[in-house]
Amino acid sequence: MFRGYYETAKLELPDDMELREFAIQPFSSESYVRHLSFTSEQELRSFLIEKAPLQVYFSAGKYQSPSAPDMESKGWMGSDLMFDLDADEFCELNVRRFCMGTGEEVLGDECVSNVVSYSEVTAECLKQVYDKATLLKDVLKDDFGLEGEIVFSGNRGFHVNVNCYGDCALLDREDRKKIVEYLTDPRVEPGSPSDFGWAGRLARGVRPLKLDEQVTIDIHRLRRIPGSINGKSGLPVFRISSASELDDLLSRSPFKGSRVVIQPLVTGELNVYNVRVTLKKDLKVTINSEVGIYLALKGLVRLTAYVK
Amino acid sequence: MTVDTSKYPELADINEWLKSRWLKLEDVLTPDALESIKSEVVALLEGKSPPEFSKDSELRFFLTLVIIKILGIKSLLQRFLDGERERLIRLLERETEENVFDIARALGLNMERVRSDVTRKSSKVVLVARIGFVEYLTATRGVNEERLSLKYRVMKDGYVYLSKEELALLLANLLIERGRRIYEMINEAAMPEALKNLAKGLKVKKFPPCMDALMSKQRLNDDEAANLAAFLLSVGFSKKDVVELMVQKGLDNVEQLVESLMPKPKRAYIPENCESLKRKGICVADCKVRNPLQYYFGSLR
């Protein structure tokens, strides 16, 4: 299914893709295949069709030799600025834990085998995070004069990316850390609401942001490709410009329109975004493929058949 | 307009300064000049405030750095530059805006004059300068001054805005970094014998390498701070000086720490022994002593 998707997927690639390192995560693998390099979309597409990876990325960094086997020999030429906002930081997620032996939901330590956790993310929660991503985009524009773009990760978070050139691209880890500190821990006194920068923002009651510092300071970080599939959900990564785009995320699934037979590994009623699903361990059912694939990628069901 | 380098000797090129007076370094090392430099370095070694140069300050600033370099005591350099920073801040805050911008230019900064304001503590603070944020970050790389972190600044349209006081703090720190670079570039082996002999003649109580290294670190962990504070108090530093130093190194609850290490009736606190410091990764050289204090007081040298 992933292979079929990449035959026609609209991948939004950087203009300087020949300077970027690409990486994939194959199915059934926890690790990544890194240090890949492509000079055209067609070359990348052929590779994705051949390998049909679970996830695909390109680097925030630009390199003289992007396929060199280690960072030292790649010849770093600068990096985009990346910010990561995750639903964990902004919403009270309902985290469900299932014992994989019995399939039952567990609260304490009563499971002797593996426990699979599943966080129920709602559209309302994602909209809260999107609001924060919009605030970040505005601060980057108003304070730093930088144009950021908001990208939905395809799962439960957002990335705000700034395509950097020149001096901005050459900011080192320490500089990037200071930018994160400015955004998350401003130390200016609240001034008058009409003041610029955080002085005015704090006076207007705007709260500082919560960001994953590691993502921003890592100049070799990998970025998800808009138009690719997030292997944790089966949903596409996409640029977003309105909260309403989060209303029916499952309808964006490239696997929508068909059905799959699933064998549940757990028992319980679950929310998949705003869709309610009832599962009973080992009781096979046929459901919409976008929901089935989502649950399979979360490790809660096994796909047993694809219904055309 | 050019900058008055007698007030800001960090901006002087000593070779140019000498050349403009048709002099060589050896020519200016008169007995009086050497005695004067010596007394200034001795004062520094005794923990007194660095000198405020009044005459030929470019030369005397440079020669002080040379003597410190020959002595090889990094903590002494730090003390000298810390004092110089305070002097520069006081001076820059009193300067005309015109002169401050000349100094910024001399430091290679693309600083723009602006007139804006923000509210602080219910009163308006005038912002007089702005600089591109990338240039600000680049210029402040490695500067050990928390108040210059970006998070303390107001920004707009890609620019960092500064009040005159903030600008003075920025420039003072950049001048100090320039002073540090002059120190790094000094080739002590190539200096005139008169200066080497002067340094040799100083009765220096050298900091042990471990404590010298801690003095030079920008941030200390709790073990490092406790050992350095105990050492400094043991060799006669005042409680105030030690507290100030610990604050600069980013520590919390400094008063409490230093107070706990102050000598008390029938009890004195000293740094841990060298074996223990080795285990904690604080020891940096084999000095053949049991405790850093023995190195300082020279009992086994």
Layout of helices and strands:
The complex is a heterodimer of chains A (308) and B (301).
Chain A: H1 2-8, E1 20-25, E2 33-36, H2 41-51, E3 55-63, H3 71-74, E4 76-79, E5 81-86, H4 87-90, E6 94-99, E7 115-120, H5 123-144, E8 148-152, E9 157-162, H6 173-184, H7 197-203, H8 213-217, E10 222-224, E11 229-230, E12 235-236, E13 238-239, E14 259-264, E15 268-272, E16 275-279, E17 285-288, H9 289-297, E18 301-307
Antiparallel strand pairs in A: 1-2, 1-3, 3-4, 3-10, 5-9, 6-7, 8-9, 8-13, 11-12, 14-17, 14-18, 15-16
Helix pairs in contact in A: 1-2
Chain B: H1 14-20, H2 25-28, H3 31-45, H4 57-71, H5 74-94, H6 97-106, E1 112-120, E2 123-132, H7 133-139, E3 154-156, E4 159-163, H8 164-185, H9 193-201, H10 209-216, H11 222-234, H12 239-248, H13 254-261, H14 274-279, H15 292-297
Antiparallel strand pairs in B: 1-2, 2-4, 3-4
Radius of gyration of chain A: 21 Å
N→C terminal distance of chain A: 12 Å
At the fourth CATH level, what is the homologous superfamily of the largest domain in chain A?
Answer: DNA primase, PRIM domain
Number of domains of chain B: 3
Low-pLDDT ranges of chain A: none
Tell me the total number of β-strands of chain A. 18
Q: What string gives the helices and strands of chain B in order?
A: HHHHHHEEHEEHHHHHHHH
**Could you name the ranges of chain B where pLDDT drops below 50 across 5 or more consecutive residues?**
none
What does the overall shape of chain B look like? globular
Bin the strand percentage of chain B.
5-15%
Give the largest interface. A-B, 29 and 22 residues
**What is the CATH C level class of the largest domain in chain A, in words?**
Alpha Beta
Total strand count of chain B, please?
4
Helix/strand structural class of chain B: alpha+beta
Oligomer state equals heterodimer
Q: What name is given to the CATH topology of the largest domain in chain A?
A: DNA primase, PRIM domain
Rg calc of chain B = 21 Å
What fraction of residues of chain A sit in β-strands? 25-35%
Give the total of domains of chain A.
2
